[in-house]
Design goal:
The chain has 361 residues and is α/β, with parallel strands linked by helices. The chain has 12 helices and 14 strands.
Length: 361
Protein backbone atom coordinates (compact mmCIF):
# COMPACT_ATOMS: atom_id res chain seq x y z
CA UNK A 1 0.00 0.00 0.00
CA UNK A 2 2.90 2.40 0.74
CA UNK A 3 4.06 2.85 -2.88
CA UNK A 4 0.48 3.44 -4.04
CA UNK A 5 -0.12 6.15 -1.41
CA UNK A 6 3.18 7.80 -2.39
CA UNK A 7 2.19 7.93 -6.07
CA UNK A 8 -1.17 9.44 -5.16
CA UNK A 9 0.51 12.08 -2.97
CA UNK A 10 2.88 13.01 -5.83
CA UNK A 11 -0.03 13.46 -8.20
CA UNK A 12 -1.60 15.96 -5.78
CA UNK A 13 1.54 18.22 -5.72
CA UNK A 14 0.88 21.24 -7.98
CA UNK A 15 3.17 21.63 -10.96
CA UNK A 16 4.05 25.17 -9.84
CA UNK A 17 5.49 23.80 -6.58
CA UNK A 18 7.65 21.27 -8.41
CA UNK A 19 8.78 24.00 -10.84
CA UNK A 20 9.66 26.32 -7.94
CA UNK A 21 11.69 23.61 -6.20
CA UNK A 22 13.61 22.51 -9.29
CA UNK A 23 14.32 25.87 -10.90
CA UNK A 24 14.60 28.21 -7.92
CA UNK A 25 15.27 26.49 -4.59
CA UNK A 26 17.75 23.93 -5.91
CA UNK A 27 19.96 26.52 -7.70
CA UNK A 28 19.83 28.78 -4.64
CA UNK A 29 21.01 25.90 -2.44
CA UNK A 30 23.79 25.01 -4.88
CA UNK A 31 24.95 28.64 -5.10
CA UNK A 32 24.87 28.92 -1.30
CA UNK A 33 27.00 25.81 -0.90
CA UNK A 34 29.51 27.01 -3.50
CA UNK A 35 29.65 30.50 -1.98
CA UNK A 36 30.27 29.12 1.49
CA UNK A 37 32.25 26.08 0.40
CA UNK A 38 35.08 26.86 2.81
CA UNK A 39 32.68 27.17 5.75
CA UNK A 40 30.92 23.91 4.84
CA UNK A 41 34.28 22.21 4.36
CA UNK A 42 35.52 23.27 7.82
CA UNK A 43 32.27 22.24 9.52
CA UNK A 44 32.53 18.78 7.94
CA UNK A 45 36.30 18.41 8.35
CA UNK A 46 35.96 15.65 11.00
CA UNK A 47 34.13 13.56 8.36
CA UNK A 48 36.57 13.93 5.46
CA UNK A 49 40.00 14.62 6.97
CA UNK A 50 42.10 12.34 9.16
CA UNK A 51 44.13 13.92 11.97
CA UNK A 52 47.93 13.71 11.71
CA UNK A 53 49.70 11.11 13.86
CA UNK A 54 50.01 12.33 17.46
CA UNK A 55 53.29 13.74 18.72
CA UNK A 56 55.29 12.06 21.46
CA UNK A 57 55.58 14.80 24.08
CA UNK A 58 58.89 15.02 25.89
CA UNK A 59 58.48 16.32 29.47
CA UNK A 60 60.13 19.69 29.97
CA UNK A 61 61.57 20.49 33.41
CA UNK A 62 62.52 23.98 34.48
CA UNK A 63 62.55 26.16 37.59
CA UNK A 64 64.62 29.17 38.54
CA UNK A 65 67.86 28.54 40.44
CA UNK A 66 67.95 24.83 39.59
CA UNK A 67 71.35 23.71 38.33
CA UNK A 68 71.78 22.81 34.66
CA UNK A 69 73.30 19.47 35.63
CA UNK A 70 70.15 18.57 37.56
CA UNK A 71 67.88 19.72 34.72
CA UNK A 72 69.81 17.60 32.20
CA UNK A 73 69.52 14.58 34.50
CA UNK A 74 65.75 15.07 34.84
CA UNK A 75 65.45 14.86 31.04
CA UNK A 76 67.58 11.70 30.92
CA UNK A 77 70.56 13.57 29.43
CA UNK A 78 74.02 14.41 30.71
CA UNK A 79 75.81 17.75 31.11
CA UNK A 80 78.26 18.84 28.41
CA UNK A 81 81.66 20.29 29.20
CA UNK A 82 80.86 23.32 26.98
CA UNK A 83 77.69 24.61 25.31
CA UNK A 84 76.76 23.92 21.69
CA UNK A 85 76.81 26.76 19.19
CA UNK A 86 73.28 27.82 18.21
CA UNK A 87 72.18 29.26 14.85
CA UNK A 88 68.78 30.97 14.70
CA UNK A 89 67.47 30.88 11.10
CA UNK A 90 64.32 32.71 9.97
CA UNK A 91 62.73 33.84 6.72
CA UNK A 92 61.63 37.41 7.36
CA UNK A 93 58.69 39.39 6.03
CA UNK A 94 57.79 42.54 8.02
CA UNK A 95 57.54 41.59 11.73
CA UNK A 96 60.02 44.18 13.06
CA UNK A 97 58.61 44.43 16.59
CA UNK A 98 58.45 40.67 17.11
CA UNK A 99 61.93 40.28 15.61
CA UNK A 100 63.35 42.79 18.09
CA UNK A 101 61.75 40.94 21.02
CA UNK A 102 62.98 37.59 19.67
CA UNK A 103 66.57 38.65 19.13
CA UNK A 104 66.84 40.58 22.39
CA UNK A 105 65.46 37.58 24.26
CA UNK A 106 67.74 35.01 22.60
CA UNK A 107 70.87 37.13 22.04
CA UNK A 108 72.99 35.67 24.89
CA UNK A 109 72.54 32.13 23.56
CA UNK A 110 72.85 32.62 19.79
CA UNK A 111 76.05 32.27 17.78
CA UNK A 112 74.58 33.64 14.54
CA UNK A 113 71.24 35.16 13.60
CA UNK A 114 70.67 33.98 10.01
CA UNK A 115 67.94 36.01 8.30
CA UNK A 116 66.70 35.83 4.72
CA UNK A 117 64.28 38.32 3.22
CA UNK A 118 62.89 38.77 -0.26
CA UNK A 119 61.91 41.73 -2.42
CA UNK A 120 58.53 40.06 -3.04
CA UNK A 121 55.92 38.45 -0.83
CA UNK A 122 55.05 34.74 -1.06
CA UNK A 123 52.17 35.84 -3.30
CA UNK A 124 54.48 37.66 -5.75
CA UNK A 125 53.77 41.24 -4.63
CA UNK A 126 56.80 43.61 -4.63
CA UNK A 127 57.79 44.69 -1.12
CA UNK A 128 60.54 46.70 0.58
CA UNK A 129 63.44 44.98 2.34
CA UNK A 130 62.07 45.83 5.78
CA UNK A 131 64.97 44.41 7.77
CA UNK A 132 67.68 45.89 5.57
CA UNK A 133 66.18 49.37 5.86
CA UNK A 134 65.89 49.05 9.66
CA UNK A 135 69.32 47.61 10.45
CA UNK A 136 70.09 50.35 12.98
CA UNK A 137 67.34 48.96 15.21
CA UNK A 138 69.32 45.72 15.49
CA UNK A 139 72.78 47.19 15.94
CA UNK A 140 73.04 45.37 19.30
CA UNK A 141 73.39 42.09 17.35
CA UNK A 142 75.47 43.47 14.47
CA UNK A 143 78.38 41.04 14.90
CA UNK A 144 76.06 38.02 14.91
CA UNK A 145 73.83 38.81 11.90
CA UNK A 146 74.10 36.92 8.61
CA UNK A 147 71.70 38.61 6.19
CA UNK A 148 70.67 37.37 2.76
CA UNK A 149 68.34 38.73 0.06
CA UNK A 150 66.24 36.46 -2.13
CA UNK A 151 65.23 37.84 -5.52
CA UNK A 152 61.58 36.83 -5.83
CA UNK A 153 59.30 36.59 -8.85
CA UNK A 154 56.65 39.27 -9.32
CA UNK A 155 53.24 37.82 -10.19
CA UNK A 156 51.37 38.96 -13.30
CA UNK A 157 49.15 42.01 -12.78
CA UNK A 158 45.87 41.05 -11.13
CA UNK A 159 47.12 37.57 -10.23
CA UNK A 160 48.94 36.00 -7.32
CA UNK A 161 51.87 33.65 -7.71
CA UNK A 162 51.81 30.18 -6.21
CA UNK A 163 52.63 31.12 -2.59
CA UNK A 164 53.70 27.64 -1.56
CA UNK A 165 56.08 27.35 -4.53
CA UNK A 166 57.67 30.73 -3.74
CA UNK A 167 57.89 29.83 -0.05
CA UNK A 168 59.59 26.54 -0.92
CA UNK A 169 62.16 28.35 -3.08
CA UNK A 170 63.00 30.69 -0.21
CA UNK A 171 63.46 27.79 2.18
CA UNK A 172 65.92 26.20 -0.25
CA UNK A 173 67.76 29.52 -0.46
CA UNK A 174 67.91 29.59 3.34
CA UNK A 175 69.62 26.19 3.33
CA UNK A 176 72.38 27.71 1.17
CA UNK A 177 72.65 30.82 3.36
CA UNK A 178 73.04 28.62 6.43
CA UNK A 179 75.94 26.74 4.92
CA UNK A 180 77.73 30.02 4.24
CA UNK A 181 77.11 31.31 7.77
CA UNK A 182 79.87 29.27 9.37
CA UNK A 183 77.66 26.51 10.80
CA UNK A 184 79.34 23.17 11.47
CA UNK A 185 78.17 19.60 12.01
CA UNK A 186 77.02 19.22 15.60
CA UNK A 187 75.81 22.81 15.97
CA UNK A 188 72.19 23.40 16.96
CA UNK A 189 69.90 25.10 14.45
CA UNK A 190 66.50 26.68 15.17
CA UNK A 191 64.10 26.58 12.21
CA UNK A 192 61.04 28.72 12.86
CA UNK A 193 59.16 31.80 11.73
CA UNK A 194 59.99 35.14 13.36
CA UNK A 195 56.87 35.01 15.55
CA UNK A 196 57.68 31.48 16.86
CA UNK A 197 60.01 32.32 19.76
CA UNK A 198 61.75 29.63 21.84
CA UNK A 199 62.15 30.52 25.50
CA UNK A 200 65.72 31.28 26.66
CA UNK A 201 65.71 28.45 29.22
CA UNK A 202 64.73 26.02 26.44
CA UNK A 203 67.77 27.03 24.37
CA UNK A 204 70.06 26.92 27.39
CA UNK A 205 68.88 23.38 28.15
CA UNK A 206 69.51 22.19 24.58
CA UNK A 207 72.89 23.96 24.51
CA UNK A 208 74.23 22.36 27.64
CA UNK A 209 72.70 18.85 27.61
CA UNK A 210 74.27 15.94 25.75
CA UNK A 211 72.40 13.03 24.12
CA UNK A 212 69.42 15.19 23.14
CA UNK A 213 67.39 13.90 20.15
CA UNK A 214 68.83 14.70 16.72
CA UNK A 215 65.65 16.64 15.89
CA UNK A 216 62.58 17.71 17.83
CA UNK A 217 59.72 20.15 17.44
CA UNK A 218 59.02 22.82 20.03
CA UNK A 219 55.56 23.06 21.55
CA UNK A 220 54.81 26.78 21.78
CA UNK A 221 51.97 28.53 23.56
CA UNK A 222 49.94 30.11 20.77
CA UNK A 223 48.65 33.68 21.04
CA UNK A 224 46.64 35.74 18.55
CA UNK A 225 46.99 39.55 17.99
CA UNK A 226 48.77 40.03 21.34
CA UNK A 227 49.51 38.18 24.56
CA UNK A 228 45.98 39.05 25.69
CA UNK A 229 44.51 36.23 23.60
CA UNK A 230 46.06 32.82 24.42
CA UNK A 231 44.66 30.19 22.06
CA UNK A 232 46.20 26.85 23.05
CA UNK A 233 49.41 24.81 22.79
CA UNK A 234 48.82 23.72 19.19
CA UNK A 235 51.88 25.45 17.67
CA UNK A 236 54.41 22.77 16.67
CA UNK A 237 56.22 23.85 13.48
CA UNK A 238 59.26 25.37 15.20
CA UNK A 239 62.10 22.86 15.15
CA UNK A 240 65.53 22.45 16.71
CA UNK A 241 67.96 20.10 15.03
CA UNK A 242 71.57 19.04 15.28
CA UNK A 243 73.11 20.22 12.02
CA UNK A 244 74.44 17.47 9.77
CA UNK A 245 75.27 16.70 6.11
CA UNK A 246 71.62 16.17 5.14
CA UNK A 247 70.04 19.01 7.10
CA UNK A 248 67.69 21.18 5.04
CA UNK A 249 65.70 24.19 6.15
CA UNK A 250 62.07 23.16 6.60
CA UNK A 251 58.94 24.41 8.32
CA UNK A 252 57.03 21.13 8.24
CA UNK A 253 56.85 17.98 10.33
CA UNK A 254 60.26 16.32 10.66
CA UNK A 255 59.83 14.04 13.66
CA UNK A 256 57.24 12.70 16.10
CA UNK A 257 59.11 14.18 19.09
CA UNK A 258 58.03 17.50 20.57
CA UNK A 259 59.44 19.26 23.65
CA UNK A 260 56.59 20.49 25.82
CA UNK A 261 55.98 24.15 26.71
CA UNK A 262 59.05 25.58 24.99
CA UNK A 263 58.16 29.19 24.16
CA UNK A 264 55.65 31.51 22.50
CA UNK A 265 53.99 31.88 19.11
CA UNK A 266 52.32 35.28 18.66
CA UNK A 267 50.38 35.35 15.35
CA UNK A 268 49.39 38.67 13.74
CA UNK A 269 50.98 40.55 16.63
CA UNK A 270 51.45 43.88 14.86
CA UNK A 271 51.60 47.48 16.04
CA UNK A 272 49.78 49.10 13.07
CA UNK A 273 46.64 48.17 11.17
CA UNK A 274 48.43 48.46 7.83
CA UNK A 275 50.76 45.64 8.95
CA UNK A 276 47.76 43.36 9.40
CA UNK A 277 46.59 44.15 5.86
CA UNK A 278 50.07 43.56 4.48
CA UNK A 279 50.35 40.09 6.00
CA UNK A 280 46.79 39.11 5.06
CA UNK A 281 47.61 39.73 1.39
CA UNK A 282 51.23 38.58 1.49
CA UNK A 283 51.48 35.23 3.24
CA UNK A 284 50.82 31.72 1.96
CA UNK A 285 47.15 31.73 2.98
CA UNK A 286 46.23 35.01 1.25
CA UNK A 287 43.40 33.14 -0.51
CA UNK A 288 41.51 33.40 2.79
CA UNK A 289 40.81 37.06 1.97
CA UNK A 290 37.57 36.23 0.15
CA UNK A 291 36.13 39.78 0.16
CA UNK A 292 37.67 43.25 0.02
CA UNK A 293 35.88 44.23 3.22
CA UNK A 294 38.16 41.82 5.09
CA UNK A 295 40.90 44.46 4.68
CA UNK A 296 38.84 47.31 6.14
CA UNK A 297 40.71 48.97 9.02
CA UNK A 298 37.66 49.43 11.25
CA UNK A 299 36.72 45.76 10.81
CA UNK A 300 40.24 44.60 11.64
CA UNK A 301 40.36 46.86 14.72
CA UNK A 302 37.08 45.46 16.01
CA UNK A 303 38.34 41.89 15.56
CA UNK A 304 41.65 42.59 17.31
CA UNK A 305 39.74 43.76 20.40
CA UNK A 306 37.14 40.97 20.37
CA UNK A 307 39.40 38.01 19.64
CA UNK A 308 37.42 36.93 16.58
CA UNK A 309 38.88 35.49 13.35
CA UNK A 310 40.27 37.87 10.71
CA UNK A 311 39.05 35.63 7.90
CA UNK A 312 35.66 34.60 9.36
CA UNK A 313 36.87 31.01 9.45
CA UNK A 314 36.02 28.13 11.74
CA UNK A 315 38.78 26.38 13.72
CA UNK A 316 40.77 23.79 11.77
CA UNK A 317 39.92 20.81 13.96
CA UNK A 318 39.54 17.09 13.29
CA UNK A 319 36.87 16.29 15.88
CA UNK A 320 33.44 17.85 16.38
CA UNK A 321 34.22 18.16 20.10
CA UNK A 322 37.30 20.35 19.48
CA UNK A 323 35.50 22.26 16.71
CA UNK A 324 32.61 23.20 18.98
CA UNK A 325 34.93 23.99 21.91
CA UNK A 326 36.97 26.49 19.88
CA UNK A 327 34.14 28.19 18.01
CA UNK A 328 33.60 31.85 18.79
CA UNK A 329 36.05 34.53 19.96
CA UNK A 330 39.21 33.74 21.91
CA UNK A 331 38.70 34.47 25.63
CA UNK A 332 40.61 37.47 27.00
CA UNK A 333 43.41 36.93 29.52
CA UNK A 334 44.65 39.50 32.04
CA UNK A 335 47.86 37.56 32.70
CA UNK A 336 51.24 38.92 31.65
CA UNK A 337 53.18 36.25 33.55
CA UNK A 338 55.80 33.96 31.96
CA UNK A 339 56.14 36.15 28.85
CA UNK A 340 59.42 37.21 27.20
CA UNK A 341 61.40 39.21 29.76
CA UNK A 342 62.43 41.85 27.20
CA UNK A 343 58.74 42.50 26.52
CA UNK A 344 58.01 43.11 30.21
CA UNK A 345 61.15 45.21 30.71
CA UNK A 346 60.08 47.40 27.80
CA UNK A 347 56.34 47.38 28.43
CA UNK A 348 55.88 51.03 27.41
CA UNK A 349 57.43 50.41 24.01
CA UNK A 350 55.40 47.25 23.37
CA UNK A 351 52.21 48.17 25.22
CA UNK A 352 50.08 46.97 22.27
CA UNK A 353 51.15 43.38 22.97
CA UNK A 354 50.00 43.38 26.59
CA UNK A 355 46.50 42.80 28.02
CA UNK A 356 44.11 45.73 27.87
CA UNK A 357 45.82 47.52 24.96
CA UNK A 358 44.08 46.26 21.83
CA UNK A 359 43.71 49.63 20.05
CA UNK A 360 46.11 50.01 17.12
CA UNK A 361 47.25 53.00 15.10
Amino acid sequence: MAPRHFRLACRRVPFKVVFFILLILVPICVIGILTHAQLVSYILRPLWDNPPPPFKHLPHYYAENVSMEHLCQLHGWSLRSEPRRVFDAIIFSNELDILEIRWRELHPYITKFVILESNTTFTGIPKPLFFDSNRSRFAFAKEKIVHGVFSGRIAARGKNGNPFALESEQRKAMSGLLRSSGISYGDLIIMSDADEIPSPHTLKLLQWCDEIPHAMHLELKHYMYSFEFPVDYSSWRATVQIFGPYTGYRHSRQTDLILSDSGWHCSFCFRQLQEFVFKMTAYSHADRVRRNEFLNYSRIQKIICSGDDLFDMLPEEHTFQELIKKMGPIPHSASAVHLPSYLIENADKFRFLLPGNCLRT
